[in-house]
Write a structure and sequence with these properties.
Strand order of the largest sheet: 1-2-3
Structural class: mainly alpha
Radius of gyration: 26 Å
Helix content: 55-70%
Order of helices and strands: HHHEEHHEHHEEHHHHHH
Strand content: 5-15%
Amino acid sequence: MLRLSGALSGWKPSESLACKDPLVLLLAGWSEIVGADVADNSAPVRISNGTLVVVTRSSAWSHQLSFLAERLLAALASRLPAAGIERLRFRVGTIPKHSRRQPTARARTARAATAERLEPSASPEEALLRFRRSVQQSQSARRAAGWQACASCGALCDGVAQSCATCEAAGRERRELVTARLLFEAPWLGFPGTAELVDGLCLEEYERIRRRLLRRWWGVLEQSRAAGRLSRDGRERLIASSYVVLRSKLPPETIAPATVRSVLGDELHEMLYGNDRNR
């Protein structure tokens, strides 16, 4: 069986596969990521909304692999961070034929070198015990090479990075949620004021979130305009207020009615504020 420590340090997607989807890369390197014994009894079949579905040969394999989900996620994140895999789901099924690939030259060499020392695993428990030992050896090797523990979760990452890919993605998601709420509730803060309240927010990320919200809000306003009516809760007025401030980039106290009409257009302006003149 190919040791996980060797697989993690040696396996990289080839340039010919770099442009393909993450599932193709996983299928190509599954045995080198999880080890030959585990790969013979499992295979990745689908990635959906951050969840990797892994089919296993039996409920025993699904049960045992579920205990190693965090370690498997760490191994996947270190090799394919762009895949965005955050969760694993195991189900019993037929192992796809395309997952039973012939071993690579490196895998054949490693298996030949260890054939005399390692017998095939007699059970899922034995294979997973070997997997745990391989993970421990891999972690020891990484620490010796200067890898540091992630400041958030403790997973090992290279000496340059302060957080692992998974924690970086989670931190980015939290920043986006907090920033989006501030842009809606206090759009007049602009980047300087928002950055003071959101740790790690940079101007590029702020602008990306602002543009995304503007597109989303304009879609809501356009739907109301096309329908010729507002929602019962009047949320379009709240959206329009934040939209005008973010779109014009002007302080609220300096925004004149003509500016609001120019940003929203005559029809939307009449729907949202036309009745205010009669009050």
